[in-house]
């Protein structure tokens, strides 16, 4: 590992240090806000990326000038729900998604998910998973909307199996196709392993993700969806293998990354891409200033891929932030982004929740089955 990576890892401190929690949640917001500039662009010259990033140092620009989109709006709902319920509660989370959407519908939500959010706002709703199941002729969405908001699940619980479970359930409120919710599981796994310091050994990191996703994608529903959508038998595993091949190459062009991994709105075409951005930028790159931290490189590189830049940078930011910690993030970037300060405060609460018990919080079902009453640890 290069010295810069060693230094950054040291700054982030021991596994699951507070710095890593703050880095993950804040860098996710930054990726969303900063990446919004190039969303949908087919080609993004590196000069345009650098111009945009250099502009963030301009002190005359107002605080929070870059607004967050649905990525952060929904991530905030996940954080607030986990904190107020001290664990996963699907009804509370569904209610928050619906309320947030009706309070601020102009955040750039995916066109399909809007129908789900409207149905979830109905007081008559019993099964909060049904509206998502109705999407796309009953097959459910494979968009990246579940994955873009998955980071808080990885930061709330120390137990990996529990993280996988709640990341999946949290995504299924809007994305019932396995290619949607398994993208969320993969993103949560990547953030969780990064939080433990696993990116210090990049090849082992990717091998571990493959092992975990092999199991996840062996489920009948996943195999069936992959068949229907004419994807590889285990689509996320196949992409992770492609990442491993790309890592072993001495030079990889932006065009090759896009053609191998994608840069689109589907979870399959964006979650593996975000993971690759982080791995690729562990080492210094010629295209970026030497002064750049690995986290700055990761965000810059994500933008240069074009396509769904805000969401790819948001997901890459969460994984990279959990590795490098808050110290790797420039203050000027934080100042420019709406919601970054809130994310920093929330990260401290998630750190408390994570370290509170072996489970790091409990689900509503678990709470009710034990004492029959609902628990509330932190009122808003
Ligand atoms: O996944 P989702 O929440 O969108 C997230 C993205 C992020 O980039 C955000 O920043 C925002 O810009 O949008 O929203 P969905 O509407 O569930 O899915 C996004 C899009 O993926 C849909 O509008 C469709 O174009 C496409 N899509 C599908 N198309 C055909 N068949 C998702 N699932 C399907 C499908 O099954
Ligand atoms: Mg997006």
UniProtKB/TrEMBL annotation:
It is an enzyme of class 3 (hydrolase). The keyword DNA-binding does not apply. One of its GO terms (molecular function) is poly(ADP-ribose) glycohydrolase activity. Mg(2+) binds at residues 69-71, 308, 310-311. It is found in: Chromosome; Cytoplasm; Mitochondrion matrix; Nucleus. One of its GO terms (biological process) is peptidyl-serine ADP-deribosylation. Pfam families: ADP_ribosyl_GH. Its EC number is 3.2.1.143. Binds 2 magnesium ions per subunit. It catalyses: alpha-NAD(+) + H2O = ADP-D-ribose + nicotinamide + H(+). The keyword Magnesium applies. Residues 357-380 are annotated as: Disordered. It comes from the Eukaryota. InterPro entries: ADP-ribosylglycohydrolase (IPR050792), Ribosyl_crysJ1 (IPR005502), Ribosyl_crysJ1_sf (IPR036705). GO terms for cellular component: chromosome; mitochondrial matrix; nucleus. Keywords: Chromosome, Cytoplasm, DNA damage, DNA repair, Hydrolase, Magnesium, Metal-binding, Mitochondrion, Nucleus. Its cofactor is Mg(2+). Residues 363-380 have a biased composition (Basic and acidic residues). Monomer. Belongs to the ADP-ribosylglycohydrolase family. This is ADP-ribosylhydrolase ARH3. It comes from Nothobranchius furzeri. The gene is ADPRHL2.
